[in-house]
Known about the structure:
three-stranded antiparallel β-sheet; two-stranded antiparallel ribbon; 5 strands; elongated
Amino acid sequence: xxxxxxxxxxxxxxxxxxxxxxxxxxxxxxxxxxxxxxxxxxxxxxxxxxxxxxxxxxxxxxxxxxxxxxxxxxxxxxxxxxxxxxxxxxxxxxxxxxxxxxxxxxxxxxxx
Length: 112
């Protein structure tokens, strides 16, 4: 296993690999992990594929007459959930560097 970097040692614009080492109990920390992992290119492509599939599977029903339409939509599926073992390679932009210190205790951070 590579040495874990601290968020202060990461240079802006560099490519880093983050791996979830422990699941946070706080909902806000889990959302931050999901937001960071979603910046991976493969995850972003899968998210876009799911979004398009969800749009194709919408349906409309009449409800109470001609003018009231009820739209059925699928539940949003998320490619990452912030669980232990999930990893991603992301670019260390300003927003990533701002979020990393708050969830660094749940992550293993290494250079990609």
